[in-house]
Amino acid sequence: MDISDLKIKTVTFRRAYIWQLPVRFFHWINALAITFLIITGFLIANPPAIMTAKEASGQFWMGFIRQIHFISAYAMVAAMFMRLYWAFAGNRFANWKQFIPFNKEGREKIWHVIKYDIFLFNEKEYNFKNIPVGHNAVAAASYLVMFILAVVMMCTGFALYAPTSTWFFPKMFTWVTDLFGGDEIKVRMVHHVLMWAFILFIAVHFYLVLFHDWLEGRGESSAMVSGYKFCRTERFDENKEEQEKQ
């Protein structure tokens, strides 16, 4: 068969501004905060023995670890509140409606991502119409779930911090411990289990971002630095005003 007999559909792409600066800022603040929270959380939960010539009374390394943990927690909470505001003030790719893809079309897209991207089923024909401009359906749904878990994480974390805190904000969460019958061990267990949920989310998030970057070549990774992705020309033209909103 001569190659000229083959019918190949050509798809053109254009560079489009998708992720606004505040979205990228909140993303990286959260990424750094969660990283520090996980590392320091492990150390606080299971402190390693450090043998030095100093007496224990002359060391304050665990105090510094706790301080980093608390500062990271405040940074994460601040970023959450700012991101919640931007869900109403930002462009359509940052809008809160993007994170509730549970209508019929959204459920079909979620299944498509799970089937072909996560479980790697063979797709007979790659349909460029399935390529989202912003978040794919699974990412959008998972961000909603992780936001809810982050709120629970925040409540349990500040509840554990409240007894030793002198500031009013952590003490606002003493009701969380009361909710568990005053048992701090149960609160700590919930807090610890949620940390593993975040670790799992990070692993899947890394995989899907790199997978789509390799499969589609649209700048999935660099987009969270530059704000720009490559989108199909017809989709770019349809949403030009919203995509270029600064």
From TrEMBL:
Q: Which PROSITE patterns match?
A: NI_HGENASE_CYTB_1
Q: Which Gene3D superfamilies match?
A: Transmembrane di-heme cytochromes, Chain C
| Ranges annotated as spanning the membrane | 21-44, 64-88, 137-162, 193-211
For whether the record's keyword set contains Cell membrane, the answer is yes
- Could you tell me the superkingdom of the organism this chain comes from? Bacteria
Its localization reads:
Cell membrane
Keywords from UniProt, A to Z, are:
Cell membrane, Electron transport, Heme, Iron, Membrane, Metal-binding, Transmembrane, Transmembrane helix, Transport
Q: Show where the Cytochrome b561 bacterial/Ni-hydrogenase domain sits.
A: 19-227
Matches recorded under InterPro entries: Cyt_b561_bac/Ni-Hgenase, Di-haem_cyt_TM, Hydrogenase_cytochrome, Ni-dep_Hydgase_cyt-B
Name of this chain's protein: Ni/Fe-hydrogenase, b-type cytochrome subunit
In which organism is this protein found?
Cloacibacterium rupense
